[in-house]
Write a structure and sequence with these properties.
By secondary structure, the protein is of the alpha/beta class. It is about 25% helix and about 25% strand.
């Protein structure tokens, strides 16, 4: 029969069982407003219950705000699933914050530490295989990390990624204009947050390569590619059908496909005007129209449209691009009101200048002016834009609709 041990409510540290000492060093929890205290067993300062079997430990614990485990390691695999609050972590030098719905995986022998947010307790489930005993070993601050000798691999299954965030777990998304730049960054970010994806573009080689890379990293076929012209309603219908047949439903749409239009009023040709308007504005509308029935079938949905600061500010050129993105912003707001009572949210992201490799470079004087007028003084990278899409697509933005999130390095603040 497994043993059950409950940490005392007054959080007084308890000593490890005599047969399982923690070693010579101290195993520390840093307490807000207090000195570090010797804690002994893992999580002994937290409220909760720990069940210890012969091969596995499982616990439901509450770590008080401002409390955290100092750097330590053990030859056991460990999982931590966040229920409430936030838990800052560092695993082998990789830092992050685990939020509700996130699953943190700690590989064998990885040096790791945790710290609950200063304003809220962290509640989490934790599990650890017991192939090499229960207790971890602290890291000597003077000597630096000392890695334990690898033992036989535990027989418990190992997730394909060291850290698996789950803000988009069980969500299915269509992302257009996804083969490179911001679109590819969105696909990677969504995949790492647990989403399944239909990746659309007209750049087949790059799109297929992206999907292969995402699936390899995930260790499963979580993404599929289709050639996708967003100006064709039939392609949209095919994309929705693919999402539902392959993954069972559709929850999210990212309208990211777009083409630039840089000349001024007199230098813009009718062909150029129509092309930019068709892709940037008409394509966005067609996507929303095609996906709404699927969202209703799924019970809810979220749309994130790629807009631009040029929807609101003028550059003295790029007439059709300004017009198209202004239309996208107005379309997003109008549809957000129309569909709010159907549990479908619509928002936009307004990036500043972003380094996208396939776009033709801006004229040198134009690029210099934009950078000079950006308080952060540089061009953004696609990976710096993608988190805005993750937030707006996730349940963290459940009360956010009809707005645009600016990610421009401060450009529109002056």
């Amino acid at each position: 029969m497994p043993k059950t041990a409950t940490a005392p409510a007054n959080m007084t540290p308890r000593k490890p069982p005599p047969a399982q000492k923690a070693g010579k060093g101290k195993y520390l929890f840093k307490m807000a407003g207090l000195k570090s205290v010797e804690a002994g067993p893992e999580y002994s300062t937290a409220h909760g219950a720990v069940v210890e079997g012969e091969r596995f430990m499982f616990g439901l614990l509450r770590m008080p705000k401002g409390t955290g485990a100092a750097a330590h390691h053990h030859p056991n695999e460990q999982w931590v699933y966040i229920i409430e609050g936030e838990l800052a972590f560092e695993v082998d030098g990789k830092k992050g914050v685990a939020r509700p719905g996130s699953l943190l995986y700690i590989p064998p022998n990885a040096v790791h530490s945790t710290l609950a947010a200063p304003d809220r307790d962290a509640v989490f489930l934790t599990g650890k295989d017991l192939s090499h005993g229960l207790w971890g070993k602290p890291v000597d601050a003077k000597a630096g990390p000392r890695r334990a000798k690898p033992g036989p691999r535990a027989k418990t299954p190992r997730p394909p990624q060291a850290l698996i965030a789950m803000r988009l777990k069980n969500k299915v998304a269509i992302v257009t204009g996804a083969a490179h730049g911001i679109g590819a960054a969105i696909v990677r970010a969504f995949a790492r947050e647990g989403a399944k994806l239909v990746v659309g573009d007209i750049l087949d080689d790059e799109g297929n390569a992206l999907v292969a890379s995402v699936n390899k990293e995930a260790g499963a076929d979580i993404a599929t590619y289709m050639r996708f012209d967003v100006t064709q309603a039939a392609h949209w219908n095919d994309a929705v059908s693919l999402a539902e047949s392959r993954f069972g439903k559709l929850d999210l749409l990212v309208n990211n496909a777009g083409v630039p239009g840089r000349p001024g009023v007199e230098d813009t040709t009718e062909e150029s005007w129509n092309r930019t308007m068709d892709v940037d504005l008409k394509g966005t509308w067609l996507g929303m129209k095609a996906c709404m029935p699927a969202f209703r079938r799924a019970g809810s949905g979220a749309v994130v449209n790629t807009c631009s600061n040029y929807a609101l500010v003028a550059s003295g050129r790029a007439t059709v691009y300004h017009s198209a993105k202004g239309g996208v912003l107005s379309l997003t707001r109008a549809a957000a009101v129309e569909y709010a009572r159907q549990k479908i949210r619509l928002n936009a992201v307004r990036p500043g200048v972003v380094a996208t490799p396939r776009n033709p470079p801006l004229p040198a004087d134009w690029a210099k002016t934009l950078i000079d007028q950006t308080p952060l003084g540089r061009i953004a990278q696609p990976d710096e834009i993608a988190p805005a899409y993750v937030f707006l697509a996730s349940d963290e933005a459940s009360f956010v609709t009809g707005t645009s999130l600016v990610v421009d390095g401060g450009y529109t603040s002056i």
